[in-house]
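Below is a filled-in request sheet from our internal design queue. Each sheet records the structural input a requester submitted and the sequence that came back. We keep these sheets so that new team members can see what a complete request looks like end to end.

REQUESTER: design group, bay 2
PRIORITY: normal
MODE: inverse folding
CHAIN LENGTH: 210
BACKBONE (tokenized):
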């Protein structure tokens, strides 16, 4: 049983180099890289979320924790092997209008790439028009939208409505995710799928393209 306490603490404390080194040494000693991400790095970030919500942690500290988490993910990335099965597919993914939270989206991108998908990451704060432009340019099979704020969740529906309006809704599968998003919400707004985490997102995309 691997002890993830130390790496969780270093994410929580925003220790960038320490987190990078701990993540590297865990994978080098044979720990599953996805477990380092989920049980170590994300688990540490979840603690940050709790303290942030309680007003016991502030934005600069949260940003340091986010940086520590990203450094850990970078260290682990080379150890994530592509899936044996070829899963060809293009996905355009971004956060919706008004939402700057990109840590989760970046993780989803990384896991999808490791599964063989071509990922077009359009970044944060995308208007429906920007999603539509990206679809026209890259012709993906899947579009992924991420939202971390309850106030930006409606932008997901607005984007889907804009796809209908632009006549491109049926050309793509639309998937949504982010902490406040649920399967029920995804169904309500007419999305084709919901993924609760990066692994679920990968499995969903494989299912949608096969
Ligand atoms: C880090 C963070 C920030 C950082 C963001 C840095 C960055 N580059 O992303 C900073 C400090 C900038 C920030 C700012 C703000 N934040 Co903030 N933030 C967080 C925090 C602590 C962690 C989010 C995170 O990265 N989680 C870790 C990742 C790995 O998880 P995840 O994003 O959920 O992603 C996973 C899944 O959801 C899924 N997924 C994600 N996207 C997608 C997409 C698809 C298609 C699929 C299938 C799956 C999927 O897979 C991911 C990987 O497993 C959360 C608390 C929390 N616990 O969520 C608050 C939180 C989201 N923030 C919050 C708030 C209020 C804000 C601010 C408004 C604060 C302020 N007053 O300024 C601003 C808004 C900025 C903006 N316009 O977007 C609130 C939102 C409350 C609400 N109900 O809407 C939260 C919940 C904190 C709280 N409890 O109050 N924040």
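RETURNED SEQUENCE:
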């Amino acid at each position: 049983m691997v002890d993830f306490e130390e790496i969780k603490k270093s994410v929580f404390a925003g220790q960038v180099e320490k987190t990078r080194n701990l993540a590297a040494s865990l994978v080098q000693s044979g720990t599953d890289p996805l477990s380092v991400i989920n049980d170590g790095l994300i688990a540490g970030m979840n603690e940050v979320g709790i303290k942030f919500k309680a007003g016991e942690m502030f934005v600069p500290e949260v940003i340091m924790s986010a940086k520590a988490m990203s450094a850990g993910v970078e260290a682990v990335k080379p150890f994530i092997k592509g899936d044996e099965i070829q899963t060809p597919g293009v996905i355009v993914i971004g956060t919706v209008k008004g939402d700057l939270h990109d840590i989760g989206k970046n993780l989803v991108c990384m896991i999808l790439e490791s599964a063989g998908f071509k990922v077009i990451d359009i970044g944060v704060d995308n208007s429906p028009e920007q999603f539509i432009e990206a679809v026209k340019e890259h012709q993906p099979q899947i579009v992924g939208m991420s939202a971390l704020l309850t106030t930006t969740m409606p932008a997901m529906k607005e984007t889907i409505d804009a796809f209908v309006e632009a006549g491109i809704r049926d050309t793509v599968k639309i998937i949504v995710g982010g902490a406040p998003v649920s399967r029920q919400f995804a169904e309500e707004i007419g999305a084709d799928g919901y993924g609760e985490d990066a692994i679920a997102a990968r499995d969903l995309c494989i299912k949608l393209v096969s």
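SHEET NOTES:
- The chain has a mean pLDDT of 92.
- The chain has two domains: 5-79, 90-209.
FILED BY: M.R.
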